[in-house]
């Protein structure tokens, strides 16, 4: 083969292939071009086969020019391939554009009851202050519900109107306080417990009264547990409890009367500019309660309190009717 | 009770505005608010009405204007002005010339005093007195009744007036009513000769009578709370003074019938000042303590530097023990002024309550599975109760109403009621509840249970028992997360609520843990629910005892697991548990896991067959060869063919 011819061939092939690459509209076509020119049996390799026929002096130069053409083509194909890939992705991206303001796929988690949530908050705070959670039972004896708590036989709280009676002197506990006596009978001071639980009162129901509700009882007994300690515990409790609500909370401590404490105290809170609301009854454990629990007189002192769970939950969430808690209405439940 | 600001001012100097007085009382004695002016009272009379929540232990001494004024005087450090008790007596006769009084029940009536008044002219009371009564919502009646009511507002002593003419045998006998005896309450009539009694009754006797008769009078409330017997004299004298002032011509017979066999004496209490400081948690100056107690009429004598001997007047029935005196000092000091002190308790991590932890974990798992928590009433009754089962229920002796006659024996019917109610607004609902249920009426017991319900309005199903298996999947997730392993689902028969072909008993360690199933179509129809409902309930007390927080880590194998699929055609009646049993007992080794990934039964399959397809995972502590796996696979296939006449596909 004439030298000019050979060089010409390389040049034509190079030009032809460059054009083909330029025009390739997709990756499959580009691959065909690669096979056609660069493949094992491709046109450039065919040319290589002709090299031995070339005169010694020019062979090396022609070899170089073929290799150069090969490298050049490879580079161009790679570039084109990248370009096509980019185009493809750009097209895909454009095609796959969505309306991100459409709603998310419904994935319904359930909801915990607001009373559960508030109870957990309360438990967490008291546990961090070293209080242990214990449970009592809803069916209680007259003795533990009343007698052991210095509520004598003729006390108005024993009236038929307030208590749900079962047979054989049993009743539905009217407060969580029976656990004070039960726990102290079995445990010696120092002690710190809270008792969350359901209680029952035979009352007319309205937006703020229910025949069943929940309390969290508290009891701390030691050698020198004082009224000032009780105050500190509740100052801290309310600070923590309402810490996430961002509303101004005022706490008021005033005298109160419960037969099983002396001195007695009631704790009111006021949110923003609404009315004062009583949320806790508290006081120093009455000596008669220590006595019925079998503690030696004068050896210990302590405070006890009862906190209304519904009342706190109503304040916390701004719920205006206590009966909603027992409505099982999903439109209510799903808000928590 | 309502208090008149002006009337209070009669008995002590009050410089405070009604609002300030209300605040003072709230912080130191009783919750008090100034009555809304809407009733027009303040504007008309220049008076303010205070609504005061007298604490139950102070009813006996502060449920009256004079009594409360004493408390206010003590708080403000001002003197008390006694009510006007002056009157003239006609000493020519003695009350004994008119009547005789016998107290049979000395226990029930510690003191009975009476005076006789003649020439009483009954007429309407003067306007000022009528106006005063109206402030307290008391209807004016006539001069004598109005005086008695007014004197009670002033002194707190309930009193009674008898028409002498109508007094049978001119005798008053204080005794218990006889069985069958009727009581007529007095009202109206013209009297011109009266006997006025002022008495003290034992609180317990009064309260019981009220309860039985449904009677609750102003007087009985006061007696029920207990009253100082010495108040009787003050009340009676105040009435006499008012009668003489208001009813001209009336004559008060000299002398008093006074039956008071066991005189109540002032009480002595020893007060340890160190204990006082320790209980309050603040150093209180002994002078403050002394001044406070003395302002309340308590006599103090110091015995050394640490002890006060306190002599408590009879009017303070509530002050019985050292702590009662400490409360007086603390509240006068002001709970508001007390500085909170963080308890100096030994650092101790509180014991965990594992039942509570399990309960909260179960709640979280169920909520993340899409179930919302409900709290239903602990009471059931009315139509919801199965008549045959009534004697199994724990009965309330005094139910709130017939729908709340019994304690709930289970949680599911409450949840089904919730489904029905929520179906008004939603097409699908998933709920759960943790709560006590009650059984054994003879010896009432409570048991903590967890129940759930998953309901959809659609009745058609794409997969047989889809709701059942959804619920079973939820329970499996619950058990696994609680670390409860090896729960078994066993065929069972259950009551009419459950679908007989879709119900299982849940067992653990040989004992029943609960029940899962679909609600029977008949039960749904009776409840008026259209759709499919699956539910479960679990003995949570038992579950909590087997919950296991501990986990054991096992090494992740370095060698690859190999998965082979086996698809078989078997008789429809062959149960999944049998198929798994055959595979496990086929003698094949290295089986790590078997997962059903496809299940089909339908018309295209000939002769009552169903198709099951499994992923079988093989794993060993070395790389298994294809040949080894093929051998194990053959063992499984052969066993399935031999034992279940399965067709391998």
Topology:
The complex is a heterodimer of chains A (336) and B (649).
Chain A: H1 3-23, H2 27-38, H3 43-50, H4 56-95, H5 114-128, E1 132-133, E2 139-141, H6 142-145, E3 170-172, H7 178-186, E4 191-200, E5 212-222, H8 227-241, E6 249-255, E7 261-271, E8 277-285, H9 287-292, E9 301-308, H10 309-317, H11 330-333
Parallel strand pairs in A: 1-4
Antiparallel strand pairs in A: 2-3, 4-5, 5-9, 6-7, 7-8, 8-9
Helix pairs in contact in A: 1-4, 2-4, 5-10
Chain B: E1 2-4, H1 5-11, H2 18-28, E2 31-34, H3 41-45, E3 49-53, H4 59-62, H5 65-76, E4 100-103, E5 111-118, H6 127-135, H7 143-155, E6 159-163, E7 171-174, E8 193-200, H8 203-213, H9 218-225, H10 231-246, E9 251-252, E10 257-259, E11 267-272, H11 273-280, H12 286-295, E12 299-303, E13 307-312, H13 322-333, H14 354-368, E14 372-373, E15 379-380, E16 406-407, H15 412-422, E17 428-439, E18 445-456, H16 466-481, E19 487-491, E20 498-508, E21 511-519, H17 521-527, E22 532-539, H18 540-546, E23 562-571, H19 576-584, E24 591-600, E25 609-618, H20 626-644, E26 647-648
Parallel strand pairs in B: 4-7, 14-17
Antiparallel strand pairs in B: 1-3, 2-3, 5-8, 5-9, 5-10, 6-8, 11-13, 12-13, 15-16, 17-18, 18-22, 19-20, 20-21, 21-22, 23-25, 23-26, 24-25
Helix pairs in contact in B: 1-5, 6-7, 7-10, 8-9, 12-13, 14-18, 19-20
What would your notes on this structure say?
The complex is a heterodimer of chains A (336) and B (649). Chain A is α+β, with helices and mostly antiparallel strands and 336 residues long. Chain A has two domains: 3-95; 114-333, BirA Bifunctional Protein, domain 2, CATH 3.30.930.10. Helices cover 43% and strands 19% of the residues of chain A. Chain A contains eleven helices and nine strands. In chain A, strand 6 and strand 7 form a beta hairpin. The longest helix of chain A has 40 residues, at 56-95. The model of chain A has no long low-confidence stretch (mean pLDDT 91). Chain B is an alpha+beta fold and 649 residues long. Chain B folds into five domains: 2-76, Phenylalanyl-tRNA Synthetase, Chain B, domain 1 (2-Layer Sandwich), CATH 3.30.56; 95-178 and 186-259, Phenylalanyl-tRNA Synthetase, Chain B, domain 3; 267-333, Phenylalanyl-tRNA Synthetase, Chain B, domain 1 (2-Layer Sandwich), CATH 3.30.56; 354-546, BirA Bifunctional Protein, domain 2 (2-Layer Sandwich), CATH 3.30.930; 562-648, Ferrodoxin-fold anticodon-binding domain (Alpha-Beta Plaits), CATH 3.30.70.380. Helices cover 32% and strands 24% of the residues of chain B. Chain B is built from 20 helices and 26 strands. A seven-stranded mixed beta sheet of chain B has the order 14-17-18-22-21-20-19, sandwiched between helices. In chain B, strands 5, 6, 8, 9 and 10 form a five-stranded antiparallel beta sheet that branches. In chain B, strands 24-25-23-26 form a four-stranded antiparallel beta sheet, covered by helices on one side. The N and C termini of chain B lie far apart (88 Å). The model of chain B is unreliable at 183-191 (pLDDT under 50). At the A-B interface, helix 5, strand 1, strand 4, strand 5 and helix 8 of A face helix 2, helix 8, helix 11, helix 13 and helix 14 of B.
